[in-house]
Amino acid sequence: MRRNYLLTPGPTPLPPYARKALAREIIHHRTPQFQEILKEAHENLKYVFQTKNDVYILTSSGTGAMEAAVSNTVCPGDRVVVIEGGKFGERWTELCKVFGANIELVKVEWGNAVDPAIIKDILDKDKTIKAVFATHCETSTGVATNIRTLGNIIKDTPAIFVVDAISSLGAVEIKTDDWSIDMLVSGSQKGLMLPPGLAFISVSAKAGNIIDACKNPRYYFDLRLAKKAWAKTDTPFTPGISTIIALSEVLKQMRKETLDVIFSRNKKFAEAVKKTMVALGLELYAPSASSDSITPVKVPTGIDGVKLVKVMRDKYGVAIAEGQAQLKGKIFRIAHMGYIREKDLTVCIKILEKVLSDMGYKFKRGIGVKTLKKLLG
Amino acid sequence: MRRNYLLTPGPTPLPPYARKALAREIIHHRTPQFQEILKEAHENLKYVFQTKNDVYILTSSGTGAMEAAVSNTVCPGDRVVVIEGGKFGERWTELCKVFGANIELVKVEWGNAVDPAIIKDILDKDKTIKAVFATHCETSTGVATNIRTLGNIIKDTPAIFVVDAISSLGAVEIKTDDWSIDMLVSGSQKGLMLPPGLAFISVSAKAGNIIDACKNPRYYFDLRLAKKAWAKTDTPFTPGISTIIALSEVLKQMRKETLDVIFSRNKKFAEAVKKTMVALGLELYAPSASSDSITPVKVPTGIDGVKLVKVMRDKYGVAIAEGQAQLKGKIFRIAHMGYIREKDLTVCIKILEKVLSDMGYKFKRGIGVKTLKKLLG
Fold it and tell me: pTM of the full predicted structure?
């Protein structure tokens, strides 16, 4: 069987120890055996989140945790700020609309990061703002938001700071407590190297008070039920047992490797891939703002970007991501996080060169792989 | 490593082909490769549901699909009937309360099935009833509800019929279309032999109209979004890819084996286990009403039921279920569905005999295993 190379920003490849854990005989969840696993996973999740707060494990994809963040805090008519600079920022907007928020929408041109001064200005003028929603790494554009600066601005206001770290947690630095993030939301299928199906959400004391006071109808994602169950090392509903067992294995490995080593590797990969794109004569999308999780690249003029991604995947088994929504056909995205390693990147660049060349793009064949290999050392 | 025997009513053991599928390299979900798997799984789910309606796959545990059934149909003040005869009937009540329903609560004594005439009477008198919520197999008591008769009563009223088949689908006969069920809800970890993490919900045309008109705030479980995505063989949010791949393998096997063969096996197992309990001098809980998925058994006087289950599991690796809530310590439950086979049942009875004997219960040692083996042939 041909090896498939997966360089999409979620799902990312599963390491062998995760696959082995997924294939284990299943055990019942209301047992001391499972509780031990849950407890260890929880402790190690707190390490990855860099928080002393509780981190709840939800059985859903990342959007479920985003809904939990909104449905547990935003009541009809509440004033909230949403920073929206891509498809996943739009998801915050949609969720806040569904739950009846009075939204101060901060639209950021796709490919750019928000200017924190704009948020400061809004919060200075309006003391009724209850929450600020942001996206750490906007998966659709690759843009990284300056969460640290925003956290500093928000922490002394009545507002809570809610951050989507779905494609950044475990991939690039994000410090929940130090950066004053009240609710950090993530998913299993990106930096945590697991199949999709688990979502995570941390809750600060400031957010906890709002959750307790919130009257919205909610049940499966009710964080009061999660908190109550968590106190007994339990979950309110049947959890995704097999994925949690694999999660505990992955987190053990991450802790052993340390976040610093993981973040440095991803940073090195990001820089190498960016320079490789330039060597190929390609133009980076959002060159000054992009996250170390993903490199977004403009499709060169005259090349069909949708076809490029399709041929790489269907003919050569190398999956990268195409552009979404308004960027469809205009960019492609190469992920370098989780279990993606030198070999994956090298094969990816080799195939990218081959397909670009076949499609008529002019460049010096081999320069990409050569540049990459040199930079990866 | 010691083999563990799992005879709990969810999770149930994973067959080798499911475990193998879970351990596969992951693929991206927005690809023709995954769409093909999703399409096939969907077709085979319709076979298992015995329906021509759409069946949506949600990435959550079964309770998520229960929430979807309520949040998409029940608006504040709506009149609904909830049939509640155990912990999972109570879950319908809780969900209907959360979404503001005006509930006609039909409490059934635990261990008994509802008398359909009561429901007919309510529906005859009150034409404003919008939905009737029932539990096919009440996992906490093992009681089976007569869904067929209820469906016949409800079908000619304005009400929709919503059935929790979480611990019955793929284990005992349930005919969505023939029995006029408007929304059938299930999960992955029982008759479908997978880890928890996927939920399923079928939607009739009658239910579809109510969903479209419903104004409740909802997002992750919004069935309008599920329908829209499904039309393009897609899911609205990142799905539980690995579990869906395993689902497609399990459903293929089930279709090959046929539902009739599966249901007959479970029926034979249920009858054999029940007679084995009687041979051991034990008293069945709900003898006239229990489902073929689970055999509920009264803990004999003088025996600590919690300890019995704990010792069987922790000392001998045989997991059965204890009683829940008001039945804690008073009953134990043996599941015989999914991938549970003769060997599992034999080991279970052998260990049950051993532990009962060690705990001082008087009976003819060996009579259980002998009875079971004779009946299993």
Answer: 0.97
